[in-house]
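Protein modeling request. Please complete all fields; requests missing the sequence field cannot be processed.
Requester role: graduate student
Desired output: 3D structure, token encoding
Chains: 1
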Amino acid sequence: MEGQIVDIEYECGLVEIARITEDTNDSYVVSHLTQTDDLRFRFSRFSYPIPKESVSGFYDTTDLEETGLYRKIDDVYYEAVSSTDSDYEYDSDDVSSTDSEVTLYSE
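Delivered output (107 residues):
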């Protein structure tokens, strides 16, 4: 379990990505992904225990890049992968014919 990337869901409904640093009997010790001032992300240097029931999903990887949500910049920092990324291929089935007919101006 150690090193696994997971989603943590809090009682308020907030979901965060974290890395498991320790697996105990009734909890995981995790380091959450935090955003820096310059829109980069890194795993926190601080870890804290959470109930195992708080994990809402496992990414089945220890590599944040394999989630498809972040791209590694260097040994510490990541950047979010935008859905408007130039490498992203749009599926033509996702766009309906009415999408191209929407206008902000009345006729």
